[in-house]
Every structure is written in C-alpha cells, then in structure tokens.
Write a structure and sequence with these properties.
eight-stranded mixed β-sheet, six-stranded mixed β-barrel, about 15% strand, globular, binds iron/sulfur cluster, binds FE2/S2 (inorganic) cluster
C-alpha cells in the first residue's frame, strides 16, 4: 500500500454549465467556462509549474512560475489567474518560458536553506519539485546577499512548527486561513523583501487567533509550516482513507502511516462532508489512541471496592456471560440491558442492540442520543415522517438566509461552520437565536443580521412568536402549504399561532427579546430567499425539546423551505455516529430504520432472520434503567463506549443506580468515570484499529478503515459477538461488511448500502435503495416521507425548573472547540493546551453583585448538587445567565443539572438549571472525596 496522491489542479473547479474549447500544447480540451488555463492544462495532462496556486484556494498570481504563451497575445500571462476562452491556443512549454521560470526559481532558492537532505519535508516539498521541474542546476546569485536564512522558528503550537527561514511568502497559508477556515489569523506583515507571514499582532501562533485547524499547514508548499509529528517520525509511507471519530460533521481523512505509526491525519479533498478541510480535533488530536492510560487487558472484580484483576479475554467473556445469566435467573429476563455508543460504528451499534433483543431477550437497549437528539427523532418523524436532517452540507452554499438556533457551530461543528461562514461572507444573511453571544454573532467578516438572545427555556415561545409574525403578516407560502401539507393541521396551527397571546409583544416577558427584533427576524426568514435552519442541543435538551423541533419544522413548512437545495431543517449532530446509532435501532422502542417494536411485520423480519421471538413492548430507557436499579429491579448493564456517569444528568442519581447493580460491564478505551462503578472492564479499540461505517449529521454513511491492529486484541464488534456466543445466541460474522449486509437486508432505507457501494461512491446518504441507488442528498423533494407535512400545535409550557431567591441564575451548558464531550480523548492530547479546565462564564454585573473576580473559585449550586470551578467574567452571557462546559471530570457540571427532561423522549433538560453562584475557596468536599474514591476504584492488580 502506498501514499494516496491527490491531483492538484491548481485552481478551484468552475461551476458554470457553459463550456469552452481551447488548444493547449496542440491538444484540444473542453472545460467549464471560468476555468483557469492552469486547470484546463492539468485536465488535458499538461502540468504547468506553480508555487502560489493550489486548487483549494482562489488563484493569487504572485509567484510568476506558471507563465504561459497565448497565440495572438503579448507577454507571458500567469496561467493560474487567466481564464480560458473559446479558440484560445496556449503553449505551456517553450524555451522562453523555461528561461523565465528558471530565473524565478533561482531567486527563490538564493534565499532558501540548502538542507533538503535533512529537511522534514524532503520528498514532500513543492519548492524542491519545482526546482527539478524547471531544470534548475545552479543559482547565479549565490546565497551571500541579504536573506531570511536565520529567521527564528515558532514552536509554540504543540502540533506544528513555523520555520520562517523556509518561507517563500506565497501567501497560501494566509489565504487558507481566510478562505477555507474563515479565521483570518494570519497576515503578510512588512513590505517587499521584508515581507513575512505573521500570526496577526501576536509574535506566536499560540498567542494569536489561530484555532489550529491545520489548513495553513496543509496549504504550505514548503517545510515552513510542518506537522511536529512529521518532524519527529519522518515522512509517511502509506495512507488509508477513513472518517474522523469526533463530531457529527464526519470529515474524511487520509491516515498517513509510517510502519505501524500514525504520522498525520490529512483532510481528504474528496470527502463530501469536509471537502479537504479539518479542525484541530480530527487533524491533530488522535494521540489518545497511544496514551499510556489506555487499558489493553480485560479486567474483572467482585465488588467496586476491590482492585481490578487482569484476566484473559476468554475468562472475562465467560465471567460476564455467567453473571448476566445468574442475574436473569434470579431477577428475571428484564433485569439486564445494554447501552450502545454513538462513538462506535454502525455495525458495532447494530450488534449491541441485537445482543440485547435476541440474547438478553428484552428491549432494554438505549443510547446516548437519549441525552442529546432523541427529540429530533421524535419531532422530525412526527412532522416530516423521518428522523433525520433534510439536507447535505453542500446545500448551505445555496442558502440566502441561515437561521442558527441553540447551536454553536464554530466550536462544536467547526468544519461545517467554516463552510457556513464562507457562504455568509459571500452575502447570505444570518439570524442567531441563542442565550449566549456565540462566535457567529460577530467574527471576522461575519456579522449576524439579528441575534435574539432569549432566556434559557423560552425556545417554544420564541418560535411560536416568529410563526405568529409569518402567519399574521401574510408571509406564509400558501401554494406550497396547499400542495404539500395536511391542510386541516395547518389551519388549526395557523389559528393557534395567530392568537394575540402568541405575538412577539405578548411573549416578550418570556423570551426577554424585544418584539421588534423578533418581527424583523421573522420577516427575514420568511422573505429573504432560500432559508435554512441549523440547530443543536440548545433546542433539544429541554423539557420541551420535542416541541421545539416540531416548532422549527412548522416554520420551515409554512415558508416552503423544505425539499430543495439551500433550505431545510438540519440538526447538527454532536457525536460522530449519533445519527447512525439512532438509525441502527438503539432505542428501546425501535428496530433499525425507525420501525416500532410493536410493528408485527417489521418484527417478523428480524425474528425470521435471527431465529428468535422478539418482545413487542418497548424496553427501558437509560433513566428508567437507573430508576429501576435504585428500586432493586435492574441488576446488569452492558455499556459500550459511553461514560454515563459524566455525561448524564444528576450525577448522584446515576451513581446510585450504578451502585445498586450487580454486574456493570464497561467497554471503553480508558477507565472512565462510569468504570468506577463497574465489575467488568472490556478494553475497546479506537477507530484506527477497526473496519466499519459512521453516519454523519447529513445521513452520510462513510467507511472507517483499519490502519493498524487493535492494541487490545479485538475490535469492539468482536467483543459483542464473543459475549453473544457465550450467552448462547450464536453470531458468526467474519468481517463488519457482513454485518452491514445484514443491516441492508433488514432495513429498507439501507437496502442499497454495501462496502462495495461505499468504496465505489466514496459515501452515500440514506435512503439508499432501488429508488435512490446513489443515496439521497436532499429529502422530501416532491412529497414528505410521511405523505403530507404535518403542522403540530406547539403550546409553550414553562419548565418546572424555576429561578427563585435561592437559585436566581439560569445555568446553560455547551462545548468548546478544543475539547470533546466528556473529554476522555481530547484531555489525553495536547488539546488541553487550549482548555485545561471548565470555567463558569458569568456576566460582570452578576459577578460584581457576588464579589467574584475573573479567575476566582466559585461555588455553583443547584437543587441537585453543587460543584466548584473558576469564574470567567464575560458579557457573552446576559445578566442572569451563566454558562459552562462539561469536559472535565474534576468539575462534573452534571452534578448540578436536574432530572427534568423532555416530555416525549426523556432527553434531559441540560440547558436550564436554576443555580446560585458564590465565592469559593477551591474544589468542594465532594470533589475531593470523589477524586479519592476514583483513585481507589482504579487500582489494578496485574495478571499473575
Ligand atoms: S491553523 Fe488554521 S486557524 Fe491557525 S493560522 Fe493556520 S489556517 Fe489559520
Ligand atoms: S508559510 Fe508556507 S504557505 Fe505561508 S507564505 Fe510561507 S511558504 Fe507560503
Ligand atoms: S469538524 Fe468534526 S468531524 Fe471534522 S475534523 Fe473536526 S471533529 Fe472531526
Ligand atoms: S502559480 Fe500562478 S502565479 Fe504562482
């Protein structure tokens, strides 16, 4: 296997449908209008030397190496900046051009260290290649004149080095940061000979606005910007295309290897979700896979107070199976269950739910989507007929208005945020509905037209007020509604939202947002052209999460914004495979493809394929499992790849539930917080060590490919299979592709999916079946999946969680770019350089009232519990609102979140907790106690 070499066409593809024919070096070539001569030449097989051009960036025309001659035209224009014209006759290789190019290269090389043999980029350097391509043999000017050869290196960023002595000032890095990433962190400082790349006003990359996305490193044609790992390990020798295992954007990467060592992750240009871009997590934060704390041997213990004992795989599996059999024998068939993981592959997730339904013989299976996007499933299925987003990511390029609600894409979905910002810089209008002033509200060259900073918990009131304006001001797309939607339901809904009690003015006291702002935003959404809604957990994690999703769907249907590019309702999924985990039948009431367990026909398919009788009643959800455990009825739990102690609400209740069980099995990479309450630990494998598929937020199914052997000996699907066999329900897959074949046989929306199809097309978006063999980028084009779109009345019901004199502030939670979820992976990488601890954001006014200064320890208390963390004073949050992240177990923000949850799905109300903040002296007693208990729970006795 060798390195995957991607063709660089020099300039981006032209999107024109009109074509132009010209002659290049005697060959006729036809290309889309607007194509550069450089790109046209490359597609005709002629390579023109270049340095400042690359096809991920707009042409710049600074290096003067790509000169060509054009018949009938004077001079030697740059081929990267000159568009093709019909009938043009171009010569790319002439004696005159050769001489000019050599001269240009001589100038570059006269100011470049001649240390190719020891340079980290040796063999992967465009300057070196171009010196060869133009036939450079000597440099007439020597290297004695003024130069930059002794310029200092900037090694402040843990992941890449900036060696200014090798910079040719081609500006590719600056343009990558602007055009691809949209951060505008870099600039060319100085003039003429003194020009140099600078990270803004800061002397170092780490001190600058840089978010370490790696786009500049990728774009740099020399060794100036180089990955630290390439410097340490050397150039990679082979690469494998795979999918990022962090967030729901689903970026495709080339994992570049040297031997068994991963050298770097390079974003893949053909990846349809990321189009060659990346963020700091997928690009750089993979060191956890080799982290010394990773557990590689199975372990068991009789009680959670005992030290762990390392055992063989056979012993661990046999012990687990016998414990589950014992528990079911003693407490009944329903006394055990399983939790699938949104971090694991579709195949692994499918296998866990199969294990629970077929081998445990009940439907007690649930997934972490319970605590994030279960309301999306319920809300979109009810209104549109299917539990998924409606668009592909490319769709944002056709949007005229973008409404972002309860999502913070620049931190949580960074690569998609960059695409969104590009569209915004090109003129799309922006509405942000969020209690916090997220980056999108105002960042480099992006400014929201409307920011509606509503009070946490007021989502439904806000959306109904927006709908009120649309209905009462005659902004409904009546033709669309008449043709596509259930008219009775629409009429009832329109009558409901038109009530004066739902007007922005009447709702102002609830939302806290001036009615005139709400009215203007509604008018923009309804009349601004193609309007798309993107939303996140700020929508779903509420007691009215499902209602909010349906209110969003109502808005989109009323304005005709469903069923074509540029519009739609798009849940931004948090984890890499949360969409897939839901698709695969991880919920207690649904088989794969969202078919209810009470549906006899669907159940029958599985019963005959698996040779068992399945329960037709939904099983327990995660919160019910914990309640049942506390009540003494639920005793055994198999948890694959989840840390429910840290990620689920009301930590004390989770701990009580886990403590009441007799066999908790945790399958994970590290001894996570939940493992402190486990009796069996089965070491998991990373995405680099196994084959499978992930499904991203746009329903895109992509391959995960094994690049190294599992360090723990088994891939996660093999562990589940072994457990099932030990329990007496045979599974005999040789490869995950066979699991996918079974999924395709049993799931209509996946019937066309196979590893062959994925290898052939790169990826597909479900539904993928006979009707759509290449997948479905945009859904509901001619009709809704459920037939007619269904409007649902969305009455605002305030949450029971109320502020009062004891708890006068509202806490809301979220993520930060550099850390990921419970931080199990990112905390074990250099990403902690950006976010070492969770901080409490508090408005200066609220801080002053409490005598709290920036950086002080504060106590954060709610009705559920209290924790301590440091304060960060900022006006990003409004007075009365505080905000924190939940990446660090020492803080455990979920100690304070409550048991309230979405009425339809039990999704916890993470986003609204009434709290009090007071000055503190450092970590609280429980935190110290907890740390001590965790230390005890992690003792390991090695195998004899
Ligand atoms: S790493 Fe990304 S954000 Fe940082 S300077 Fe480079 S392109 Fe800009
Ligand atoms: S750092 Fe690299 S990409 Fe940036 S100007 Fe210098 S050589 Fe070009
Ligand atoms: S945006 Fe998400 S999928 Fe893409 S590299 Fe970052 S974490 Fe990975
Ligand atoms: S590649 Fe065309 S001017 Fe540099």
């Amino acid at each position: 296997m060798s390195l995957i070499d991607e063709i660089d066409f020099g300039t981006p593809e032209a999107r024109s449908k009109a074509s132009v024919t010209l002659t290049i070096d005697g060959r006729k070539v036809t290309v889309p209008q607007g194509t550069s001569i450089m790109r046209a030449a490359k597609s005709a097989g002629a390579t023109i030397p270049k340095l400042c051009a690359t096809d991920s960036l707009n042409a710049f025309g600074s290096c003067r190496l790509c000169l060509v001659e054009i018949e009938g035209r004077a001079g030697t224009p740059a081929s990267c900046t000159t568009p093709v014209m019909d009938g043009m006759v171009v010569a790319t290789q002439t004696p005159k051009l050769a001489k000019l190019r050599k001269g240009v290269m001589e100038l570059y090389i006269s100011d470049h260290p001649l240390e190719c043999l020891t340079c980290a980029a040796n063999g992967d350097c465009e300057l070196q290649d171009m010196a060869g391509a133009v036939g450079l043999r000597d440099v007439r000017y020597g290297q004695d004149g003024a130069s930059h050869l002794v310029a200092e290196k900037d090694t402040s960023n843990p992941y890449f080095t900036y060696d200014a002595s090798k910079c040719i000032v081609c500006s590719r890095c600056v343009r990558a940061c602007e055009e691809q990433q949209g951060t505008f962190a870099l600039t060319i400082a100085g003039r003429g000979f003194g020009s140099r790349v600078a990270p803004g006003p800061s002397p170092t990359f780490m001190g600058s606005e840089c978010v370490s996305c790696g786009a500049c490193v990728q774009a740099c044609p020399t060794a100036t910007l180089t990955e630290t790992k390439v410097i340490e390990i050397g150039q990679p020798e082979r690469s494998v295309v795979t999918t990022c295992a962090y967030c729901g954007v689903g970026c495709a990467f080339k994992a570049e290897m040297r031997g068994e060592e991963l050298v770097r992750m390079v974003p893949w240009k053909d990846g349809k979700a990321n189009r060659g871009h990346s963020c700091v997590k997928g690009r750089f934060a993979w060191g956890y896979a080799q982290h010394k704390e990773r557990i590689l041997n199975p372990m068991i213990r009789a009680s959670i107070n005992d030290p762990w004992k390392e055992v063989s795989w056979d012993e661990a599996i046999a012990h687990t199976a016998s414990e589950f059999k014992r528990i079911q024998g003693k407490y009944g068939q329903d006394s055990v269950g399983g939790i699938t993981s949104s971090r694991c592959t579709n195949e692994e997730t499918y296998l866990v739910q199969k294990l629970v339904r077929a081998a445990f013989g009940n439907n007690n299976v649930d997934t972490c989507a319970r605590v994030c996007h279960s309301p999306t499933g319920y809300g979109l299925k009810t209104t549109f007929g299917t539990s998924a987003g409606t668009q592909d990511f490319d769709s944002v390029e056709d949007s005229d208005v973008i409404l972002v609600m309860g999502a913070n894409p620049t931190d949580a979905h960074p690569v998609f945020a960059s695409r969104m910002k590009k569209r915004l810089r090109a003129g799309a209008r922006l509405i942000v509905i969020d209690p916090r002033r997220i980056d999108l509200v105002r960042s480099a060259h992006v400014k929201a037209d409307h920011h509606l900073p509503l009070k946490p918990g007021a989502n439904v009131a806000m959306l109904t007020a927006l709908a009120h304006v649309i209905v009462t001001e005659g902004l409904v797309d009546e033709a669309y509604v008449r043709e596509r939607c259930d008219m009775d339901a629409f009429t009832h809904w329109a009558e409901f939202v038109a009530r004066e009690t739902n007007s922005p003015e009447a709702m102002e006291a609830v939302t806290g947002v001036p009615a005139s702002d709400v009215r203007q935003a509604a008018r923009l959404y309804a009349t601004g052209g193609r309007a798309a809604i993107y939303y996140g957990l700020g929508v779903t994690e509420h007691s009215q999460g499902s209602t909010t999703v349906m209110a969003i769907a109502n808005l989109a249907m009323a304005t005709g914004n469903i069923g074509r590019p540029g519009v739609g309702v798009n849940p931004l999924r948090g984890q890499n495979n949360v969409q897939g985990a839901c698709d695969m039948g991880s919920f207690p009431h649904e088989l794969s493809g969202y078919r209810h367990v009470s549906d006899a026909a669907a159940r029958g398919l599985f019963e005959s394929a698996w040779g068992v009788t399945l329960d037709n009643e939904p099983g327990l959800r995660i919160p019910n499992m914990l309640d049942a455990a506390v009540a003494g009825q639920f005793k055994g739990l198999y948890i694959q790849g989840e840390d429910i102690l840290q990620s689920d609400p009301n930590t004390r209740h989770v701990a009580a539930g886990l403590s009441a069980m007799e066999c908790v099995v945790v399958q994970d990479l590290f001894l996570n917080e939940t493992a402190n309450y486990a009796h069996v630990f089965l070491p998991g494998s990373t995405f680099l060590e196994k084959d499978g598929t992930f499904t991203n937020a746009e329903r895109r199914i992509q391959r995960v490919r094994k690049v190294m052997s599992p360090k723990n000996g088994l891939a996660d699907w093999e562990i589940t299979q072994a457990l099932s066999n030990a329990l007496g329900f045979p599974m005999a897959y040789d490869h995950p592709s066979q699991i996918m074949d079974e999924i395709a046989r049993l799931t209509p929306s996946f019937s066309g999916v196979s590893y062959e199809r994925l290898d052939e097309l790169g990826s597909v978006q479900w539904p993928c079946n006979d009707a759509a063999p290449e997948g479905t980028p945009v859904m509901h084009i001619e009709r809704f999946v459920r037939g007619e779109g269904r409007f649902i009345i969305t009455e605002y019901v305030p949450t029971d969680e109320k502020v009062g004199p004891r708890f006068p502030l509202l806490l809301t939670t979220g993520r930060i770019l550099s850390q990921y979820n419970v931080g199990a992976q990112t905390r074990r990488t250099d990403n902690s350089a950006w976010h070492e601890e969770d901080l409490l954001e508090i408005h200066p006014h609220d801080a002053e009232e409490r005598g709290v200064r920036d950086g002080d320890w504060v106590k954060l208390a709610s009705r559920s519990g209290e924790t301590a963390l440091r304060a960060k004073l900022t006006d990003r949050v409004a007075p009365g609102v505080v905000y924190t992240t939940f990446h660090h177990p020492d803080t455990q923000a979920n100690v304070v979140t409550t048991d309230y949850s979405d009425w339809a799905t039990n999704c916890p109300e993470y986003k609204v907790t009434a709290v009090q903040v007071s000055r503190g002296n450092g970590p609280g007693d429980w935190q110290l106690e907890y740390a001590d208990q965790a230390r005890r729970a992690r003792r390991i006795e090695a195998a004899e």
